[in-house]
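Revision sheet: structure tokens.
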Amino acid sequence: MSPRDRALAALTGLAVGDALGMPTQSMCRAEIRAAYGKIAGFRDAIAGQPIAPGLLAGTITDDTEQALLLARLLVDGGGHVEPRAFADALLAWEADMIRRGSADLLGPSTKKALSLLENGVPPEEAGRGGTTNGAAMRVTPVGIATPVDDLATLVDAVAETARVTHNTSLGLAAAAAVAAAVSAGVDGANRMDAFDLAERAATLGAAQGHWSAGGSIAARIHWARDWVRGLRRSELDDAVADVIGTSVSAQESVVAAFALAEVLDPADALTTAAGLGGDTDTVAAICGALLGACGEEIPAELGETVVQVNGLDLGPLVDGLVTVRRTIP
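Predicted:
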């Protein structure tokens, strides 16, 4: 696969995972089993879905929409995004979602940071409480647009887009890990090598943000990858859901995505993520981006469906991101 093909697969994988997790997000495993049985493909959201009631099968959520928003800003800015412009774009996106009657709005860290920013708090301070997975869920375009040859430069690019909402050791480390794995994959790395690099990037990212109490993202990814390789398939779901965790906390959901991507093929990884409970759409979205970037084949029928249902045209956006990548020293 060419770099362009891997970049397209990363965004497609993100959208597919997001849409698979849409009907199950914020539900527990028992509720998911009762409502849907085993998740094996796209499903319509039930009327009682807490965030996306009644949405059609294959519909994307905030994970993909915010990633595409960031991608457009990166292309327009030649690889750079001014923090306040990004904040304004996120607020405009949420206002549009409210007009559409959606409850799938900005996450807790982003919402708090943008409120502080509107009240005059400087961008570098507004995100000092952001320890959730919002920056990591939308960071894939940064990985596509930024080479990984100089890891510190890539982490700086991540921080530029993440600092305004997630300027913490946990938030930046998680976003840096995802971006580094995606960037390495676009350059041709397999998932083992890409995920090794993600751990190094997480260490660098943690050093950039305000320190927050919590397990080290780099250490937890390293531990989780090693642990799940020794598990039987029948043990994996319980291990990820009950021990690693799938909440919006960066040190749970992002680590869970790496754990699933470490040992499962894309179809199994994404449907498994969608059935684990918690922040299912984000776990599956990040998992899809990681696997797609690393050359693992996202099922074509799933990709075609999510593009058709949501009217996505990812090709021109990918071309723009790859062009930016070629211009960055």
